[in-house]
Amino acid sequence: QQVLFYKNRKIHAMKKLFIVLSMLSPSLLFAQGFQVNLQGQKQQAMGGAGVATNLDGASVFYNPGSVSHLKENSVSVGVSLTAESTAFRDGNSQQQFRTNSPISTPFTGYGVWGPKESKFKFGMGVYTPFGSTIKYEDGWSGRYALTQMKLLSVFFQPTLSYKVNDKLGIGAGFVYGYGHIDLSKDLPIANANGQQSTANLSGTAGGMGYNLGVYYKPIEKISIGLSYRSQVNMKLKNGSATFNVPNSLQTNFPSGSFSATLPLPQVLTLGVAVNATEKLVVTADVNYIGWGSYKSLSFDYAQNTTSLKDTESPRNYKNTYAIRLGGQYTLSEKILLRAGMNYEKSPIKNGYVTPEVPDADRLNFTGGIGYKPIERFMIDASFSYINFMKRTDTNIETNLSGTYKTRILVPGLSLTYNFN
Known about the structure:
- The chain is mainly beta.
- It contains 3 helices and 22 strands.
- A 14-stranded antiparallel β-barrel has the order 1-4-5-7-8-9-10-13-14-17-18-19-20-22.
- Residues 1-34 have low confidence and may be disordered.
């Protein structure tokens, strides 16, 4: 009976573990739920709109076509401090639990070079489009799905931009993405002495894609931008799964490696910017995000047992969108003021919300300031308040049921040096 008891519990634990493994992907942090729209301090202060403007080297990310229309070469570095807070109210016990997540630090680095007489400009972008740490308090009701997740990702994008004429620019960038993830959870198995069993999952993934952009200025006061970021299939190889279980169950829970292919969706963005006055620029972007291609996620384990089999977990995400509005006002030669807002629609259908991605539709507010202490040096600061709507859901795989409410505060700073 004791053997049967352990067998039933280990099968139940393994089923839950498969669900967690299916959330291992760095690609999930590209969804609206955890997309890190922090690729430029000027742009993020303006609601994340930047496809129709050419404010600085962050155009390497937002629109490679506008890079050729930058008046100066530049180098810049920036960092954002991301403080996430999620509250979860269990639908059965009505207990409330909170995250104790540390601050994460997405960063950016851009460089743009090109002779004045040349129609070509070269750019390089290094940025972190996905990255966060979420940690739930001890003993929370969803601990068998997740206790902590850490993610770091870095994308590298060399870029070439060509100025067709004073009104039109085109550009393209090659993208290589690298990601690392570390995920922990409790297992519903205890040793004879009552010690909690745990699972730790870690791995790295890499993938390639491209970024295309067109910048068009039909008249002096209006500019239009169109960009396309391709789908990137992140390949995770030799991921490591480590199980801390009773000795009697170790042969059924072998620590080992696994692999998977994880899709990052295509993103199409159309933007318009208007110089409303000599001092005021107003801009708007519409993002279309092709998450509909993310139907399921499969994992292939190097070593299988009767309890540890290759898995396929449904995701069934849907295509989604975001609308971004922002403006910049030149207060003086040294000071610029910025503000914006955006609305982002979640791609996660009812029944698929998880602790790793407690996603919901969101309405966000942003602001910032630029300061130019000397001729070629610029300091830009931004602040974003990201407000998720309340989301009540019951996950179809784990049956974890409850209401999530998430807020994220993001102050950021960048330094830019311009040169001829």
